[in-house]
Specification:
Elements lengths: L4 H5 L16 H16 L18 H8 L22 H35 L20 H12 L4 H11 L9 H17 L6 H13 L5 H8 L8 H22 L7 H18 L7 H45 L4 H5 L52
Length: about 400
């Protein structure tokens, strides 16, 4: 099976790339690379991880991190004829022939894509800027598109410190929760690409730590963080982060649509926990290596605090129930005794050193449960022993 080069190029949306006038700049090269990337994605292949031939352009490490698998084209052309095992059945022979034809088709397509990519870039840049690579006999045949662009960037697209600083400022800008998470992800990946071009790369660990901090700043996502943190290191790649947090943001947005707001019963606790996590992650965001064990311990501490709060809330509920039950019983007794309200509750002859003259029946200096400093158990209404004189003129009705 033979495929013509023009048929491969016909699949590409940009038949020509935006021409760069004069010396190439980083901005101009980035625009050219976006157009070229769209072309490469448009030509499918079996090893492109659903990104076509984009791996011809991208740095292998970045391609792997973003797509979860390497771009792995065949290293050599397939054999001229299929290798048929002795004794193979007719069905097996047909299958081998079909696979061999497909391998030949893919290989031819790969060679066409590689030459088309180099030719498109060369046509967009004035020849004087890549003359060193242009062999008098072979031209650019021995040069890959990644090598060509790398040469141009290193010679002419120098990035100064102010541009690097501006890029990092953009990188550390948080996300807008009203927009799809993909907008933020695209921003972060473009910043990573820029930093890579400037030879001050942003590691995937920094991408993950910074993005997690920004996600927690958007609201109630501590549960999403806990779920993320439970994964193994192998399950915490940048690609995994994008999948996990995109799902978390979509779920939260769905809840808000159903409820009409982002209220949650434990919103205050969630906000406090999120703030504490953000503070911790803020310190880690600038580190080259993420110290995951430190975060694990931090989360465990937060969990213990939250458990304590829940226990206290339960205890308070039980106490309130008992108080209400006790008050109901007292009211019932009062009704049976023919007395209610003020007449039943207060002791006209009572006194407490800490609380003064107006105390309920059964409450006196000796039985007081909430005593002040220097409390005297022997203090009475006739001898207050320097105690509290509150409600001294009160007379029971």
């Amino acid at each position: 099976m033979i495929i013509a080069r023009d048929k491969v190029q016909a699949l590409m949306p940009h038949q020509t790339l935006t021409k760069i006038q004069g010396e190439p700049t980083h901005k101009a090269i980035r625009k050219l690379e976006k157009e070229l990337g769209a072309n490469l994605i448009a030509v499918p292949c079996s090893w492109g991880v659903n990104k076509g031939h984009l791996g011809e352009l991208h740095d292998p490490a970045i391609f792997l991190a973003r797509n979860g698998a390497p771009y792995a084209p065949p290293a050599a052309a397939p054999l001229a004829y299929p290798d048929m095992p002795v004794g193979a059945t007719t069905a097996a022979r047909e299958q081998i022939r079909a696979e061999h034809e497909l391998a030949q088709y893919d290989w031819q397509t790969l060679q066409h894509v590689r030459r088309i990519a180099v030719n498109l870039v060369a046509a967009a840049i004035e020849p004087v800027y890549y003359a060193e690579l242009d062999d008098p006999d072979e031209g650019l045949n021995a040069v890959s598109v990644r090598e060509l662009l790398q040469f141009i960037r290193e010679r002419y697209c120098q990035i100064d410190q102010s541009e690097i600083d501006k890029n990092m400022e953009t990188f550390y800008e948080g996300m807008d929760p009203s927009l799809p998470l993909s907008v933020y992800i695209r921003k972060q990946e473009e910043c990573q690409d820029f930093a890579n071009d400037a030879k001050v790369p942003i590691s995937d660990q920094t991408m993950i730590t910074t993005a997690t901090k920004h996600a927690l700043q958007c609201g109630d996502y501590t549960e999403a963080w806990k779920e993320w943190n439970r994964g193994t290191d192998a399950q915490k790649t940048w690609r995994d982060w994008k999948s996990h947090w995109t799902r978390a943001f979509n779920e939260n947005r769905a809840i808000q649509r159903l409820t009409g707001n982002s209220f949650r019963a434990n919103a205050t606790i969630e906000t406090e926990l999120s703030d504490q996590l953000v503070t911790s992650l803020d310190n880690l965001a600038y580190a080259a290596v993420q110290k995951n064990d430190t975060i694990v311990k931090f989360i465990e501490t937060i969990k213990q605090q939250q458990d304590t709060i829940h226990k206290l809330q339960a205890q308070n509920g039980e106490l309130m129930t008992k108080l209400l039950e006790g008050q109901s019983a007292a009211d019932a007794d009062a009704k049976r005794g023919g007395t209610t309200g003020e007449k039943h509750a207060w002791d006209p002859s009572g006194y407490c050193w800490t609380h003064g003259y107006k105390v309920k029946k059964g409450h006196n200096s000796k039985t007081c449960k909430t005593r002040g400093e220097g409390h005297h158990e022997s203090a009475t209404r006739s001898n207050i022993m320097g105690g509290n004189e509150a409600n001294k003129t009160w007379i029971a009705k």
